[in-house]
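A reminder from the course coordinator: this example appears on the midterm review sheet, so study it carefully.

Given structure:
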């Protein structure tokens, strides 16, 4: 299934999506119980949609993650489709966004000099310095 295939008030939603934005979580109290809710924007090759995360799923999902929602639910609010895991669905992180931040003071690490990258044909030749012999 893809985002373009979603229909309002439909169950059995099964999608693999990338999380592109995450709002701040909000707490609520209903029927004497408290919980948390958070909206994220998710996308696939066919489009983007808002997704509602509840309670423990909020901390599990981060921007950049690839997630799999199984047996989810699609609803419509203010003429906008929204998906969630619903009562019986499940969200798994299939590919977590890795923190690829590199902290360094070495300028060569950020801009490495690759032999032959300047277009020279033979990158194995080292420049030789001839010494002047003084007699």
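Designed residues:
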């Amino acid at each position: 299934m893809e985002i373009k295939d979603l229909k309002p008030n439909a169950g059995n939603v099964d999608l693999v999506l990338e999380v592109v934005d995450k709002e701040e979580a909000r707490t609520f109290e209903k029927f004497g119980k408290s919980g948390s809710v958070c909206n994220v924007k998710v996308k696939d090759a066919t489009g983007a949609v808002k997704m509602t995360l509840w309670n423990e799923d909020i901390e599990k999902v981060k921007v950049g993650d690839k997630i799999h929602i199984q047996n989810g639910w699609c609803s419509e609010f203010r003429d906008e489709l929204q998906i969630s895991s619903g009562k019986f669905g499940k969200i798994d992180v299939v590919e977590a966004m890795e923190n690829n931040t590199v902290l360094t003071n070495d300028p060569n690490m950020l801009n490495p000099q690759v032999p032959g990258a300047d277009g020279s044909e033979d990158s194995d030749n080292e420049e030789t310095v001839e010494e002047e012999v003084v007699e």
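The domain at 3-95 is CATH 2.40.50.140 (OB fold (Dihydrolipoamide Acetyltransferase, E2P)). Helices lie at 56-60, 107-110.
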